[in-house]
Amino acid sequence: SINVAVVFSGSSYQTEVRGRLSGENFVDLPVVVSPVTVLVNDTNPRDLLTHLCDTMATEKLHGVVFEDDVGSGAGAQILDFLSTQTALPIVGISGGSAIVIPYKAEGSSFLQMGASLEQQVLCMFKMMEEYDWGEFAVITSLLPGYDTFVDIVETYTDTSYFLWNVQDVLSLEMSVGASEAKTKRLLQQLDSQVLLAYCSYDEAQFLFRQAAEVGLVGPGYIWIIPSLAVGNPNSPPPDSFPVGVIGVITDQWRKSLRQRVREGVAIVAKGAESFKKQHGFVPEGHGDCTKPAKHSSDNNTLFRHMLNVTWERKDLSFNNQGFLSNPSMVIIALDRERIWDKVGTYARGILQVRYPVWPRYGSFLDKVSDDRHLTVATLEEHPFVMVENVDPGTGTCVRNTVPCRRQSNHTEDSSHPEAYTKLCCKGFCIDILKKLSRNIKFSYDLYLVTNGKHGKLVRGTWNGMIGEVLYRRADMAIGSLTINEERSEIIDFSVPFVETGISVMVARSNGTVSPSAFLEPYSPAVWVMMFVMCLTVVAVTVFVFEYFSPVGYNRSLVSAKSPGGPRFTIGKSVWLLWGIVFNNSVPVENPKGTTSKIMVLVWAFFAVIFLASYTANLAAFMIQEQYIDTVSGLSDKKFQKPHEHYPPFRFGTVPNGSTERNIRSNYIDMHTHMVKYNQKGVEEALESLKTGKLDAFIYDAAVLNYMAGKDEGCKLVTIGSGKVFATTGYGIALPKGSRWKRPIDLALLQFLGDGDTERLETVWLSGICQNEKNEVMSSKLDIDNMAGVFYMLLVAMGLSLLVFAWEHLLYWKLRHSLHKSQKLDFLLSISRGIYSCFNGVEDPGRSSGLAKPDLTSNYAQANMLKMLRTAKDLVSTANVETSLDNATKTIEH
Questions:
Q1: How many CB atoms lie under 10 A from the CB of residue 739?
Q2: What membrane topology is given (predicted)?
Q3: Residues 717 and 631 in one domain
Q4: CATH number, domain with residue 20
Q5: Using a CB cutoff of 8 Å and minimum separation of 24, what contacts does 394-399 make?
Q6: Burial per residue of 511-538, b for 16 or more beta-carbon CB atoms within 10 angstroms, e otherwise
Q7: 446 occurs within a structural domain
Q8: 475 close to 369: Cβ distance less than 8 angstroms
Q9: Is residue 116 part of an annotated ligand binding site?
Q10: pLDDT value, residue 776
Q11: Closest by alpha carbon to 451, among 655, 653, 733, 685?
Q12: What is the 3-state secondary structure (H, E, C) of 519-536?
C-alpha cells in the first residue's frame, strides 16, 4: 500500500472533504491507497510546511496531492522547495500554480496538472492568429514571472511567420497603494484594441477599474488574460471584469474536486504500480523533512515512474519541467449575463473556437454599440472575395484567411443557438480590409450578404451590400462594388482602389484548316504564274535553244530520227524543270546546248528562292486558326441589332448589378434582348461561353480580366485586350456622413502610393494567360492540318487513272486509225514515246545495251531499223568506227 497526503489550502474545503476521503474512494486503483487529508491556511506557508512534515513523520508518505488553485501561490512555492529537498513527489491537481512557478528548481519532483505559462501564451497567440489580431499591447504587473511572460511573448513574435506588431509593453504597479493617477496616465498612452494582461486575480480587478475609467474596456477592446488572473471560474467574476474579457485556463475547471483528487492520487498509484512491476516491491515512503534527498543517478525513483501515466484513457504524461506534456486548455469569455462561457478549446496544437468568441451580439445578433468595431458586409466574387469552409478537423480558418459568417434566416426560435454559419474568406478585398484594420485601428465582424447581390433598387427597397449599408445593418461594405451615380446618391464611397468598368468576354472558337492550306503561302496568281506560265515558258525556251543549238537539233527535227540523234524534247524539259523545283532525284535528261544549260541554271536559282519562301511560310498556314467574335463596343451592331445576324447574337450579364443598370439606362433595346440570356453568376456565364450557349458576356472589367487570365486553356478573352467601357472603379461603401470615410480614403491613397495595391494586384488579379501572345505554343499536327495534302493525293490518283485509260485507248484503238505521215514529225519535239506510238516504231532514243530485234512487231520496217541500230551500237562500243575490217571481225565474234 501507499500513503498519499491530500492537501487543501483554506477552510472552504473543510466541510466538503472531512470524512469523505478514505481508502474506499480509491479501491479501483492498482495499489492500495491510504489517503491522509491535510487542511492548512494558505496565508501562512510555514503552517503548511509544519503540517506536511508532521504527517511525513507519522505516515511515511509516498506522495502529496495538492489542491493548487490560483490563490495558493505561496503554498505552491513551499511545496516545490519541499519536493526538491526531500524528493517527495507532489502533484498539483488544479494547475493554478503552473503560472506562479514557471520554472522549478533543479531536482524538483513537483508535478503540475495544468498548462505552463508558455503553453498558455501559445494558446493566446493561436486564438489571435485565428481572428487576425496581429497588433496588440502587453500589460503586466510586477508579479513574479512577469518578465518571463514578456520574454515568451517577444520570442514568439520574433520567430513566428505571422505578422505580429507589439505596439507597447507596460509593466505597472498594481498592488495595494499603487498610484491610480500614474496607472491611468500610462494606460491612456495605449492605442491598441487587443490587450494581453499578466497579473494576479486581485491585480486584475485593479487593472480593469483603471482601464474602464480611461475608456479601454467595452466591445471595442479585446482583453486576454491567463488563468492566474481569471481566478476560480466557478465563482461569480468581480464587477470590474468587463464583458467580453477572454481567459485561458486548463480544462480542470469543469471537473469536480473529487475527480481532480482521484486523478492526482491515480498518478501516484500508477507510478507505484510501474515501480513494483520493475523491481518487485513498492519503495518506502518519505518520513523525514530534515533529511536531504539522495538523488539516484540512474533515475530509479518513484517520481520517474510517475512521469508517463495513462489512466482512464487520459494521457497524464509530464515533460521534464513537470508540466503536462499535452495539456487541454479551455478558452472562456465573460458573456453579457456575466457568466464565464466556454467558447473554445486548445489541445495538441489544435484550436477549436466558436465564432465570434466575444459577446458582441445579444439575442438574434442584435448589434452592440461600439465606436472602434465595425460590421462589414461582403459578397463572394473571385478573386476579390473567395469563400472556403473551415477546417473540418479544427473548425478554424487556415493561414491567410479570416473568419466570416453567412447569416441564417432570422427566426424567433431561441432553441437554435447558431444563427450563422462560420466560413473563411480571402481575396484581394480581404487583404485590403486587413491592411485598413491595422492602419486605421479598428476591429471588424465580416459577414456575407444573404441574397448574394451587389445592390439593386427593387420596389423601392435596396438589396445586397448597398441595402446592408443604407439600412445601417453594416458599417461598411467591401467587395467588387462598382461606384456609380445612383448608388452615390444614397451612400458614400471611398476613393476607388481598383479601376474597372464594363468589358465584354467572348470565347475562342477553334477554326478549321482549309484543305487548300498548303497552297496558301502563295496567292493563286503566284501559283498560276509559276506552274502554268513560268514552267511552261521556260521549258519551251530551253527546248527552243536546244533546237537551234549546233550540238542539238541544229534546226532540224528530222535529225532526231537518225540513230544517235538528239533526244531532248519539250516533255523532258518540263520533267527536268519540275524535278529541279522540288529537289527530286529522278532520272532526267539534260540539254546539250550551252544556252539551254545556262537557262536551266537560272531556273535552279529561281527554284531555290521559291521553295525556301514557301517552306518558311507553310507552318503558319497549317495550324488551326482560332476565331474570335469581333465586337467594337456596346454600340456595336451585334449588340444593338442582334437579330440582323444569323443566328441572332446571344449575350447577357449578371442581373442586379451596375453593369445591367448601365445597359438598362443607355441601351433599352439591347437590355430587352439580353434579359433572356442573363446568367445567375460569373461561373455559370463562363461555362455558357465555353459550351456555346452564349456568344458574349458583359460584366465588370476587373472580374473578366481576372477570369480570362486564369482560364484553363486560355479559351476566354476580353475584346480589345481588356478594353473597358464606362470606366469607373470599385470602392468601399459607407453610410452617409460616416466618420470612417476620410481615414479610409487616406489609407487607400497611401496604399496606392506605397505600391501595396499594385503588389496585391500582382498576387490576386494576374493570370497565366496575360502574356499568351508572347509565348510560342507548339503541338503535333493532326489530320485536320494535313487534310489538304491528302486530298491532293487523291485527286492525283484520280487523274492518273484517267490518263491510264486514255493511254490504253490511244495505244490499242486510236493509233490504228491514223495513217503514217511526215506531218507527225513535230511529235519528236514533244515526246518520242508519242511519236513512236503513232509511227509504229520504238522510241529511237530508248536503248538498253545490246537490244535484240523485236520479231513480233507488226511492221518489217520496224524490225529492220532495230537491227541496224543494234549493229551501230556494237560498233560504237568497240571503238572501231574507222576500220571496216575490225568492224566485221567484231560482228563475227
A1: 9
A2: Multi-pass membrane protein
A3: yes
A4: 3.40.50.2300
A5: 394/350, 394/351, 394/352, 395/352, 395/353, 395/422, 396/130, 396/351, 396/352, 396/353, 397/130, 397/424, 398/424, 399/161
A6: eebeeebbbbbeeeeeeeebeeebbeeb
A7: yes
A8: no
A9: no
A10: 41
A11: 655
A12: HCCCCHHHHHHHHHHHHH
Please indicate, yes or no, if residue 577 is contained in any of the structural domains: yes
- Answer whether 4's CB lies under 8 Å from 65's CB: yes
Long-range contact set of residues 230-234: C-beta below 8 Å, sequence gap at least 24 = 230/70, 230/201, 230/332, 230/340, 231/70, 231/71, 231/201, 231/204, 232/69, 232/70, 233/332, 233/340
SS3 235: coil
Q: What are 67's three cell numbers?
A: 489542491
Residues with Cβ within 8 Å of 376's Cβ and at least 6 positions away in sequence, in order, are 433, 444, 445, 446, 447, 474, 475, 476, 477, 478
Q: Is residue 155 annotated as involved in ligand binding?
A: no
- Per the listing, cell 509511227 goes with 839
Taking Cα atoms as reference points, which of 329, 320, 312 lies closest to residue 267? 312
Rounded Cα gap, residues 524 and 522, in angstroms: 7
Query: What span, in angstroms and rounded, lies between the C-alpha atoms of 835 and 819?
Result: 13
β-partners of residue 403 are 424
Contact 100, 76 (CB under 8 A): yes
What is the tens place of the pLDDT at every residue in 290-335?
777 666 555 678 888 888 888 877 888 888 878 888 888 899 998 8
- 700 marked as part of a ligand binding site: yes
What DSSP letter does each residue of 368-390 carry, written as one string? PP-SSEEEEEE--BTTTBEEEPP
CATH of the domain at 742: 3.40.190.10
Is 719 part of a structural domain of the chain? yes
Q: Is 79 in the same domain as 196?
A: no
pLDDT in tens, 748-802: 999 998 889 989 988 888 776 754 443 444 455 666 666 767 777 888 888 888 8
Q: What is the DSSP string of 759-804?
A: HHHHHHT--TTTTGGGS-------HHHHHHHHHHHHHHHHHHHHHH
pLDDT beyond 60 at 103: yes
Does the CA dihedral 593-595-600-601 come out positive or negative? positive
Quote the CA–CA distance of 105 and 108 in Å, as a whole number.
6
Domain holding 760, by residue range, is 371-496+731-764
Sequence-ordered list of residues with C-beta below 8 angstroms from that of 862, at least 6 positions apart, any chain:
840, 841, 842, 854
Asked whether residue 486 falls in the same domain as residue 541, the answer is no
Number of domains in the chain: 5
Per-residue pLDDT reduced to its tens digit, 372-419: 778 899 999 888 999 998 887 777 787 788 888 887 654 444 444 455
**CB contact at 8 A, 631 and 638:** yes
33 membership: H or E segment, kind and range: strand 33-40
Decide which of 707, 728, 749 is a domain's last residue.
728
Amino acid (one-letter) located at 66: F
Q: Residue 470's Cα: distance from chain center in Å?
A: 35
> Is residue 196 domain-shared with residue 59, that is, in the same domain?
no
The letter for the amino acid at 103 is: Y
Helix H or strand E encompassing 880 = none
Strand partners, 503: 699
pTM: 0.59
Query: CA torsion 494→498→503→508, rounded to 10°?
Result: -160
Q: Does residue 781 fall inside a structural domain? A: no
Q: Give dist(CA 437, CA 431) in Å, integer.
A: 10
- C-alpha span between 428 and 458 (Å, rounded): 29
CA distance 230 to 224: 10
Q: Are residues 635 and 507 in the same domain?
A: yes
| In a shared domain, residues 231 and 156 | yes
| Same domain, yes or no: 128 and 195 | yes
C-alpha cell at 528: 498560276
Residue indicated by cell numbers 519541467: 321
Please indicate if the annotation marks 421 as binding a ligand: no
Asked if residue 742 and residue 723 are part of one domain, the reply reads no
